[in-house]
Amino acid sequence: MRLLIAMMKHETNTFSPVPTPLQRFGTGPGPLYGDDAIAAFRGTGSGVGAYLDIAEREKAEVVLPIAAGAPPSRPVDDAAFEHIAQQICEAVAKGGFDGIMLDLHGAMVVESFEDGEGELLRRIRALDATTPIAVAYDMHANLYPAMIENATVVSGYRTYPHVDTYDTARRAGDILVRAIRGEVKPVIAWGNVPMLPHVMRQGTDDHPNRELQERCAAMTGEGALIASLFTGFPHADITNAGLSAVVVTDGQAGLAEQLRDELLDRAWVEREAFVYKIEPLKEALARAQAMPEPSPGQGPIVLLDHYDNCASGGTMDTTIVLGEILKAGLDNVAAFAIYDPAAVQQAIAAGIGAKLTLSVGGKLAMPQIPGDSPPLEIAGTVKTISSGRFRNKGPMGRGVMTDMGPSVVIDTGKVEIALISRHVEPSDLNCFYSLGIDPLQKRYVMLKSRVHWRAGLGAMAKAVVDLAGIGACTSDYSSLTFKNVRRPIYPLDLPNR
Ligand SMILES: [Zn+2]
User: Which of 88, 101, 333, 440 is deepest in the core (most CB within 10 A)?
Assistant: First the structure.
């Protein structure tokens, strides 16, 4: 057996000002190619890791032209997309494959078109009309017809935080191998409903997505090869942003359609439960201050600066929430993190133990986000200087290398503030341990995160308080100008029927 494996992942926030050049696709100078990509992902809890395990089990020969994944940001530079697509298409054009296994995101918008994954699949199919293709998509995929019609098998995450990236690709790859052997003949039904579930309400620990995803899993016992419900990514002003479902069966088109309709109907009925209610910043902070101090080792109160999550396209350099925490005098706090490469270099030049005053954050203008995001002046001591590189402890992305870039911790006496040089959402305990901070000893931990923090840090939280700040993944959808998404769409303009 001969398999082509490739990765192209980007969740595009069309409201984000953060650029997306080719260099953003990787944990160093850019994407990984060939043997370097295989070495980086073999044995990891990633989608590519799952495909490589299947290939090994099947004693298959593997061609892996490129593995390119970037943190969420504005639409992908045309040149970056063309480069990644060209690497994959050149390999496809050489031919001789029994199967193609792709680890994609599903919400990639490119400067010149809304549907990056569909465009890639269309190009692959134009070169090779018959080789079966398996695709793993993120739960935040915004689906277009070309993303489904040019694939043989489609599988989506069932967890948010995404701790099943491996299992998702494994499901897709295993069915593909059975299709290659002629044991199954996959048929796909997909569809969407006009709703934009709020990201803060999409977690699979919570109703209603917990039950919806459980229903997807149960459908495997009712004739589905794979059933997936995609909550979609709402910070994308594109036609097909929103919720969709995909069901793959073994030749039973009618059953696939019936199960798809059931998933879409169930989601639509629950649309109100996907709406997020915002608590004003000062009220929420006062509530956090009034909470009893956790006993040592009991775990911190987590303060979520969720408008500025870099893994939803935030600049990670807004300072409204951190500023209010400092002003309110909260004590024994760790804050992760402010993205500010220049401030990091200033602290490195000053050296460990140096006392200094820094102007941090507020450097990247957000033209599509109302309100000001000024820099914040902080005064403190340089506590830690780090390369910012570590392997994830897991469960999310277990074993995968994470690169925060040069990183420092500034200790103001009350608040330890991490400053980093590459966008990393705090979803892993090693974000803190690698910087010499033990979050379990803190009274408060501020995280620029929405849901993924729960993967590695959820178990430690004594309580959670959402803090409404400012950022490119604002939780106030009414402040965003949608021009391209199909209308009407719930909750932007449909009455709750
Ligand atoms: Zn996602």
Answer: 101
